[in-house]
Amino acid sequence: MLIGPPAAGKSTIGRLLADRLGVPMTDTDHEIVRRFGPIPEIFALKGEARFREIEREVVRTCLRRLLDRPGVVSLGGGSVLNPGTRAQLKHPRLRVVYIEIDEETAAARLRGSSRPLLAGDTDPVTRWSELVAERRPLYESVATVTVSASNGPPSTVVNRISDVLTALQRREDYARFMEDGPHTEDGRST
Question: C-alpha distances in angstroms, 81 versus 118, 137, 157, 173?
């Protein structure tokens, strides 16, 4: 599960991570476009409130599917605004990776962007910074781990994520082993 602000690279990183893990990848923004049309049009014709309802529906379905089969899901930057989504993201079987980037990296990626929430009279980078300041506590509240995507190519970020998730899994496996207690080779507790 990948979360983070617009321009963090969640879609690209998600595809690469899914390929590395050999699991399917779902991008909730792409799923919204496939089912409901272009996101800027949804914002323009139906408004942000309706977009958030659609987003919640798509995210809910994707997260439920993850409980049945492994995969990578990339969430839209604002999906964490929904309390139901945040509650789902805290499910103990989900690993949520908060991908963060700095303002300089965001500025380079936002040039020529048509993202609805970054449009308008305000400089897109200024608006991006405001969104990040508003959402950071929400991202942090549901994240299992945080990984920076500011330095290096997406493949490097995928390596970081893979390393962190592997270490987390090892810690959990070791904790379960210790709860059960060490055993002798024939299976008896020591």
Answer: 16, 10, 25, 32
